Amino acid sequence: MTFTVQNVDWMSAKDKLTKLREKVFVYEWRIPKDVEFDRQDSAACHVLLLDDAGLEIATGRITAEGEIGRIAVLNNCRKPEVYQQLFAALLAIAEQQGMQTVSVQCELEGVNYYQQQGFRPVGAVYMDAGIPRQRMACSIKKFSLTKVEFTH
């Protein structure tokens, strides 16, 4: 399967980004809509991943601070190659903007997985929308795209 990656901004792609993230986070994972959509959306760089039929199947964003997040992939499309394409596009944006480090906020069960990708825990565990999370950071040069797959 081939994918098309589009770098988009919030204003031009808001409807498409919102639709994908609502399907995954609001309806499937039951994250409150007011938590899922925040003021960082308008300033972040977003990517859309389209399948070979041209349908939007995934999205993610990176903030000016280098935080990768809001990775939303439709349920039937959660395959390693989808995540690899998303992370590759987000890391390319980070490199273009001169970032040295990227970070993620993961659920506790994802900590070991992200450590295998080169991330390290930063700060204490915290609660977000009723879910315990850990912030993780990684040098762009140490991030391993070959191992990226679905964890939430």
From TrEMBL:
Q: Which domain of life is it from?
A: Bacteria
Q: Per its record, what are the GO molecular function terms? A: acyltransferase activity, transferring groups other than amino-acyl groups
* InterPro entries on file: Acyl_CoA_acyltransferase, GNAT_dom
**Domain N-acetyltransferase spans what residues?**
3-141
Identification of the protein by name: Acetyltransferase
Organism encoding this protein:
Bowmanella pacifica
Q: What is the lineage of its organism?
A: Bacteria, Pseudomonadati, Pseudomonadota, Gammaproteobacteria, Alteromonadales
Point out the gene that encodes the protein: ElaA
